[in-house]
Amino acid sequence: MTLFFALIVLGQICAAAPILEKRSFSGDGTFYTVGMGSCGTDDSNEDMVAALNAPQMGSSSNPNNNPNCGRKARVKGPKGSVTVKIVDTCPPCKKGDLDLSPAAFAKIADMSEGRVSISWNWA
Question: What does the pLDDT look like over 81-118, one tens digit per residue?
Fold first, then answer.
């Protein structure tokens, strides 16, 4: 009987556990002129920051309170990797895309490429 109750409790714990989001993403990496972003911070082209694609950023009544604002992402490109902070939204970007600051983009690719394939995950 004790094993039966243990299985019931374990089942309730598993049912209550949050479903983990997909941990690895891929898409295009681009760069943009950084300034006042949708997260309410004023950042610069030299900061290691990025704009998250609109489908993954989602929307909230107050964009400054978006739960993705301030999250860190580890981005890998053809030339290397970099960790960036999400400070903005990229409306035309597709799911998996990140629009990076010029300084961050330069860590993962040559600036002349402009658009590269990337993979990334939440850090």
Answer: 999 999 999 999 999 999 999 999 999 999 999 999 99
34/49 Cα distance (integer angstroms): 8
CB distance 73 to 108 below 8 Å: no
Domain-embedded: residue 8: no
Backbone angles phi, psi at 52, to 5 degrees: -85, 140
Q: How far apart are CA 5 and CA 83, in angstroms?
A: 45
Examine residue 95 and state whether it is found in any structural domain, yes or no.
yes
Claim: this prediction has a pTM higher than 0.85: no
H/E stretch holding 108? helix 102-108
Boundaries of domain holding 62: 23-122
Residue 57 · residue 104 · CB < 8 Å: no
Q: Report how many domains make up the chain.
A: 1
Assigned domain for 59 exists: yes
d(CA 79, CA 106): 9
What are the backbone dihedrals phi and psi of residue 16, each rounded to the nearest 5 degrees, phi first?
-85, -15
